[in-house]
Amino acid sequence: MAAKHVRFARYPGQSARIIFAPLLIAQERGYFAEEGLDVTVVEPEDHPWQAVARNDAEIGVGYIDYCAQPKYLGRIKAVAVQERLEPGRGLPALLARAALLDAGELRDESSLRGKRIGLTWGRGDDYLTFFWLLERAGLTLADVTCVAVPHEGELRRKALAGGEIDIIIGRRPRQIAVEEAAGSLRRWRAGAQIRDGWQNRFIIYATSFIERDPAAGKAFLRAHQRGVEEYVRGTVSGYPSPEFLPYLAQISEETPDLLMNSLPGGFPCRCAIDVVDLERDIAEMRAVELFPADIAVAELIDTRFAAGRDEP
């Protein structure tokens, strides 16, 4: 029987490969092939969830608020957690101006008051990254100044070089390392220090794919989670083991030094969506009008696929 062809949309660029280490492991080890799948990785010019919504890919990643946007509603659904921030794990980080850290002007979350944060309004995951820290100190966005900058590119570089930002999000380990090497920024909070247990990114399926071939949807997730399990075993000590490091460097195309100086990804072996926790996240986004008031969580997720890796 011919393998079923499935397209997975990921963030573009070489530095994004580490975000998809479990996928690349499952692909290279033949786990997808064992499930009767031929998985092709595509890099859309825009975003993975947009590619899935227009059926340029069957599967991708994104945050839950994208599923609720009117132009995507009903076209995509979150089926599993792709990354959950756990103690000692998680790729996202908050970078702070080194001068503030050296001067003791940025200690705990309460010292965020009056600081300038790099935050472009409109993305729920970006907002929540700062919200969790501000909430712990009894602060809100009214207590900081937001400076609109993207995750990468010339506008971000200019803002950092000009000292316009005190704290900013770093998404990719290579980007974080480059900005730290420039000397003006250092990691201040990373992984679960942002919020322990936060479902930071989801695997998203096209609704048409769910309806057309749910068996392939389950097969994909079974194989993907074998890649997750291998990644977790290889980083169980908090950094890649001597045996796993060369392999991870090969598939991610990152240097061993970078991999040893970054937190491992928080890819969960138990990838089922925690609906109660997700509803809390959505409530916080609704409070600042980053999530529609009339859309229920059940409209945006399909929990059948992550019920268990060994299920048929």
**CATH homologous superfamily designation of the largest domain:** Periplasmic binding protein-like II
CATH class of the largest domain: Alpha Beta
| Secondary-structure element string | EHHEHEHEEHEHEHEHEEHHHHH
Number of domains: 2
Number of strands: 10
List the uncertain runs: 308-312
The DSSP helix count reads 13
First-to-last CA distance: 18 Å
Major β-sheet profile? 5 strands, mixed
- Could you tell me the mean pLDDT? 94
What is CATH's topology name of the largest domain? D-Maltodextrin-Binding Protein, domain 2
The radius of gyration is: 19 Å
In which range does the helix fraction lie?
A: 25-40%
Give me the secondary-structure category.
alpha/beta
Choose one word for the global shape: globular
How much beta, percentage-wise? Answer: 15-25%
Order of the strands making up the biggest sheet: 7-6-8-5-9
What descriptors fit this protein?
312 residues; alpha/beta; D-Maltodextrin-Binding Protein, domain 2; 2 domains; 5-stranded mixed sheet; 3-stranded antiparallel sheet; 13 helices; 36% helix; 17% strand; disordered C terminus
Provide a compact summary of the structure:
The chain is an alpha/beta fold.
Polypeptide structure, described:
With 312 residues, the chain is of the alpha/beta class. It folds into 2 domains: 4-87 and 198-299, Periplasmic binding protein-like II (D-Maltodextrin-Binding Protein, domain 2, 3-Layer(aba) Sandwich), CATH 3.40.190.10; 93-193, Periplasmic binding protein-like II (D-Maltodextrin-Binding Protein, domain 2, 3-Layer(aba) Sandwich). Helices cover 36% and strands 17% of the residues. The strands form 3 sheets. Strands 7-6-8-5-9 form a 5-stranded mixed sheet. Strands 3-10-4 form a 3-stranded antiparallel sheet. Helix 1 (21-29) crosses helix 10. The longest helix is centred in the C-terminal third of the chain and has 21 residues, at 214-234. The radius of gyration is 19 Å and the shape is globular. Residues 308-312 have low confidence and may be disordered.
